[in-house]
Amino acid sequence: MMTTLTQILRSIEHDAFPPPDLGVTVVSAPSAREACVMAFTAHTVIAAEVDAAWVAERLPPEDMVAPVAPPFLTALAEATGREAHCLDAMLLAPAQPASDLVSNLEELTDHTHPRIVRALQYRDDVRAYVDPYGGVVIVGRGVAGRLECAIEVPDSVQGRGHGRRLAQAARALIPADAHIWAQVTPGNAASFRAFLAAGYRIVGSEILFF
After folding, report:
1. 82 CB contacts (<8 Å, ≥6 apart)?
2. What is the pLDDT, as a whole number, of residue 210?
3. How far is residue 140's CA from residue 28's CA, in Å, rounded to a whole number?
4. What residue ranges of the chain have pLDDT lower than 50?
5. What is the pLDDT of residues 88-112, one digit of tens each?
6. Domain named N-acetyltransferase: which ranges (predicted)?
7. What's this model's pTM, rounded to 2 decimal places?
8. Which of 49, 153, 176, 191 has the fewest CB atoms below 10 angstroms from its CB?
C-alpha cells in the first residue's frame, strides 16, 4: 500500500483506488496544518499523527462505519489536539480546455471576500475569480497539495445554471494534465447537482481535522 496521502490521492486521480478490502490504511498527516479521515469504497485512509497500532486498538476489524463514527473521531481529535470539521463528499474531475466559461471571469486581487478569507485558511496558492453576475470560483492547493475548488452563486441568480458553469470554469483554470477536487457537504443538494452536471464524480468522503 502507498505510504503517503499525496500518493494515494494522485493514484485516485488516475482511477487507482485503495483496495475494497474493508481495511484501514494509516499514513502520516499531510502537513502541519491538517489531518484527515478519508473513506472510499470499503477502505478508509487515516492521515494523522497516530500509528497503526493506536488505530487498531480503537477500531473493530472490517468495520466500514467505525472509522467515521463519532467515538473514533472524538478519540482522534483528542489524540492529535485538533478539532474535527464536518463530513464532506469528495468530488473529482480532470482539467478541460479553456473556453468562453473563463473568458468572462475577472481575477480578484482584493482578498476580503468572505469565501476567499475562508479559502486562505485552508489552502495555498489561492486564486479567485468573479463572473459578471457576482458568482465566485476559487482554486487553490489544499490537502496533500491537491488542487481544490469552491464556488459561490449569488441568491439572485440561483437555479439558472451558474453553479454548473462556475464548476466547469474551475476545470479550465488548472493545468491541462491536472485534476481538481471539490468538497461538498452532503446536505447541499444544489451544490451536488452543479458539480455533477459539470462533469465531476463522487470518489469518497472526508473529515478534516485542524
Report:
1. 34, 35, 76, 209, 210
2. 95
3. 22
4. none
5. 999 999 999 877 789 899 999 888 8
6. 90-210
7. 0.94
8. 176
Phi first, then psi, for residue 102 (nearest 5°) are: -105, -10
Tell whether the torsion through CA atoms of 93, 98, 99 and 103 is positive or negative. positive
pLDDT at 155: 80
The answer for residues whose C-beta is within 8 angstroms of residue 17's C-beta and 6 or more apart is: 11, 40, 41, 43, 203
120, with CB counted inside 10 A (0-12, 13-18, 19+), is: middle
C-alpha cell at 11: 493514484
**What sign results for the dihedral spanned by CA atoms 117, 179, 4, 15?**
positive
The phi and psi torsions of 95 (rounded to 5 degrees) equal -60, 155
Q: Write down the pLDDT at residue 2.
A: 55
Per-residue confidence (pLDDT) for residue 147, from 0 to 100: 98
Nearest in space to 56 (alpha carbons), one of 75, 41, 77, 80: 75
What domains are there in the chain, each with its CATH number?
A: 5-88 (no CATH), 91-201 (3.40.630)
